[in-house]
Amino acid sequence: MTSAARRSRRRSGAQGAARDVHATRIAWHDGIVRGEPVQEGRIDVLVNNAGYGVEGTFEETPLDTFRHQFDVNVFGVIAVAQAVLPRMRERRAGHILFVSSMGGLRAFPGLAAYHGSKFAVEGIAATLAQEVAPFGIHVTAIEPGSFRTDWAGRSMDRVERIIADYDPVFAPIRERRIDMSGQQLGDPAQAGRALLTVVEAGNPPTHLILGSDALRLVADARSTFDAETAAWSELSKSTDFPDGEQIA
Description:
- The chain is of the alpha/beta class.
- 45% of the residues lie in helices and 15% in strands.
- It has 7 helices and 8 strands, in the order H-E-E-E-E-H-E-H-E-E-H-H-E-H-H.
- It has a 4-stranded parallel β-sheet, sandwiched between helices. Strands 1-2 form a two-stranded antiparallel sheet.
- Strand 5 (94-99), helix 3 (112-132) and strand 6 (137-144) form a beta-alpha-beta unit.
- 31% of the residues are buried.
- The model is unreliable at 1-25 and 28-33 (pLDDT under 50).
């Protein structure tokens, strides 16, 4: 659980809805992350918040940088979730919150590795939500917009620029992201309170977008997607077998 969420919990007087996953151990073997199942204590809520950002154009980002981004943002998240799931399943209760990003629902230039990892988290969370719902376990993907954290500051891995062709597109984006660090719209303390609201809800959502900027930008991307899909729908349908059956 985030420190902001813990402070909000103390102020609200809520009891025992979440705890840190101190018992989880993650091992690295030949580049593969494995999490050992938690054997002690009770975990009601997991806030799965491992992650950092890589900034760089797709062509300029080394393959090893892509791999490390996925090791942390995807495989680290998988390992922790798999470590707590057995106990939640036994108790037929629990809530896993995957901290994704609005960058798991839409893309911007210069963040290919980051977007790839967050799109992966979105797919994992959506699948897991359907698999564990019969056990009374909730899964929510949290999709923050720009928050006043260190994501775009010291924690950001900025890939070295080597291809001048991308300067007109990417140079202004990098400069603005650096200038905006520390001035973002989102308040982390308010995000913590929002997480508590979701955790304490009787019927929590499978997705929660945080921030008015994220709401606007994700809606814009979805509108563009819907329009393009409709415009090309006849070609899409032309690939069907005449006697085929629709999947459920």
